[in-house]
Design goal:
This protein is an alpha/beta fold and about 375 residues long. It has helices spanning about 25-35, 70-75, 85-95, 125-140, 175-180, 215-220, 265-280, 300-305, 315-320, 330-335, 340-350, 375, and strands at about 1-5, 20, 40-45, 60-65, 80-85, 105-110, 115-120, 140-145, 165, 185-190, 210, 225-230, 245-250, 250-260, 285-290, 310-315, 355-360, 365-370.
Length: about 375
Amino acid sequence: MINLIEGEIPKIRVTKPYALVAITKHGVANARAYAEKFPYVDVYYMKKFAYGDEEQKNIQLFDGTVRLLLPALFKQYKAMILIISLGAVVRMIAPILEDKKTDPAVLVVDDKGQFVISVLSGHIGGANALTQEFAEAIRATPIVTTASDVQKTIPVDLFGARFGWVWDSEEKLTSVSASVVNEEHVAIVQETGEKDWWMHETPMPETLKVYETTEDAIAVKPHATLLITDRLIEAHEEVLLENGVIYRPKSLVLGMGCNRGTSAAEIEALIDETLVELKLSKKSVKAIASIDLKKDEQGFIEVASKNQWQFITYSAVELNEMPLRNPSEKVFQYTGAYGVCEPAALRYSKAKDWILEKKKGANATISVARINFEEVEQ
């Protein structure tokens, strides 16, 4: 917990590029929801609005006036997204402004989440691009007032953020961004994830070229690469990462069942082991899905909360609507469903098949499916 005292620099914990700050009860509820939709924010809000799960969710509470918190955030984050009135924000940041070449971006979101306003460092600090992406993620209207719009291309550090995509490493973000801005040949390879990522009305620049496979991209020797995938890449593909960024879309669903009282540690160990075996990235997991008999299973709740995944449950009737290769009479006797992990994964993902139909651990079972984005986006 951060105690804000006049004249003292507060100690903050920076884990993401952007700070998201709320100071009202409704703003706090929104901030918690926004963090689930937009993956690049550290959340800060007032102690008096604590839910009790802040440590688990890596949310930082503060006690005192937010004015004393902003200077520390201003110096250590690429941007501040403030669910605070515009007038109050202007008054609070005025004394800490230095130079438009170095000041971070500042955005304001109204308490109802209807508008996202680019306030400071529109071009150089990236506020305009962040405003567009964040507004899209939370389904708000972006407000950008600069006379000339940002370059109509891909903001590399925010690519896919509106969908919850995250990059694997920030090491090459700057150099790949330079290739995009300087109109060098940039290869885009997409293996999964949402397809409607081009946000502009104008056509995509000819220097940005989409390739079907990594092999196709390797063959043309691009200056830079944007690779959108949920799998761990092979050694021969690493040439693309000499100046490339991997993006992890939220494309994987874990159907799971377990014995009552199975620990979160055992459940997560099974997940980690399975994903390594399948050569899939944990960063691409979107949800754990199970039967509604498990809706209060603490192990599932803890693992989902820790990893910021959804935890979704279905009734036996809903699960029995899914096609199964190996229906189980034994499972039916206990649950009313002919399977749990396999149909739960299919139900959520809208996939026609599994990546992994079923694997049994000591006290839990797991099935893995990839989201059918063509079905989901309809």
